[in-house]
Amino acid sequence: MTRDLPARAVTAPELLAPRRADRSGATGEPDAIVIAQSTEEVQDVLRWAHARGVPVVPRGAGTGLAGGAVPVGGIVLDLSALNAIERIDPVDQIAEVQAGVVTADLDHAAAAYGLLYTPDPASAEISTIGGNIATNAGGMHCVKYGVTRDAVLGLDVVLADGRRIRTGRRTAKGVAGLDLTSLLVGSEGTLGVVIGATLRLLPRPERVATLAAMFPTVRAAADACVELTRRRVRPSLLELLDAATLGVIDRVQGGTLSHDGGALVIAQVDGPGSAAQIEAVEAAFTPAAVWVRTAGDPATAESLLAARRLALPSIEAEGKAVIEDICVPRSRLADAVVRIEGIAQDHGVGIYTFAHAGDGNLHPIITYDRESAEPPASVTAAAEEIFALALELGGTVTGEHGVGLLKREWLAREVGADVLELYRAVKQAFDPRAILNPGKGF
Prior knowledge:
By secondary structure, the protein is of the alpha+beta class. It has helices at 13-16, 39-52, 103-111, 129-135, 142-145, 180-184, 218-230, 243-253, 274-285, 298-317, 333-347, 377-392, 408-415, 417-430, and strands at 32-35, 56-59, 75-78, 85-89, 94-98, 115-116, 152-158, 164-168, 193-200, 202-203, 208-215, 237-242, 263-270, 291-295, 320-323, 326-327, 350-356, 361-368. The protein is built from 14 helices and 18 strands. Strands 11, 12, 13, 14, 15, 16, 17 and 18 form an 8-stranded antiparallel beta sheet that branches. Helix 7 (218-230) packs across helix 9.
């Protein structure tokens, strides 16, 4: 293939090397890369690949955690240079952006108009809009504002054969035709290459209130989070950290949180009624809590949120980490976190669990020795049990990271053979030569 490459394809080892992997740890070997500079170049690459049956793996910043951007030979199509915020319309409250725009950069630009781009994955400072769309990324505020799909009104897409299409709309409402936009969001580059998007913005909340509560056990903390739902309180953020996570934060950062109790919950509300809402959160938490602390100013709020922001860096400071991602019904949250503690004990591995508790999305982080080239068998076995637990509790094996390379077998178990057959029929319609991100998803 190297004697017949699309224009501007490069094979220099120093350029190929950083595009062999994403944050999942999975690796592959591309034959070449193209760092696209224009829509026309994306089209040219796909026409070339389609004519020859050559795999194309779209890539943004490479922050994915499921192997979705890992090459399988062929061409890595890097979209990070397509990074223009083309338009922000403060009246229609939309943004039109290219796929390589960094997520946080869009939100910062929207803030100048008093608007908010709501999806906020943990990687927002480095991940791109295209990658977020590919995986239907979530984040800490999706309990109130939804995931990436809820913010996407329309897409600019190049199909496998190089044709360019636009899906969706710029209007607040629209039901004409099939909803191809929602189908493409979360398809992990297997149906088309997203090169741009029309995104919904919302008014930026003027009032935000934050509260932290320590609980004696992780079950008490999880039950308190479920109690908010029973009381019809809708926080904009609701995060839970278990005892193991509090312990590693203390060890690495030098704190004493783990001395106070077995689980920490951080809640945030926003909007005109935030004062009354935070009082309702406090009333729900106080009966079972060791202590409850509220923040009346941004600096104090940031100090309460600090433990959540420090969780993953602290875990990664102690060793290599397998970052998992399951989601269960909110009513089963307590069962899930307690059972994960048991899985850690059964396999003799460290598992640190923090959760977007408002929507039942848990991140059990399994650690192992930094010197090990691959996760040991005990880590793999623990991860398998966690996936099985998610399905047993009526949940899913991935809430926001995607399927990628790593969870294909578990997707098959979750959806079943008949649904997989439909997925593959859709894939055939979009990509008859199966060149787009082969081996990913399904």
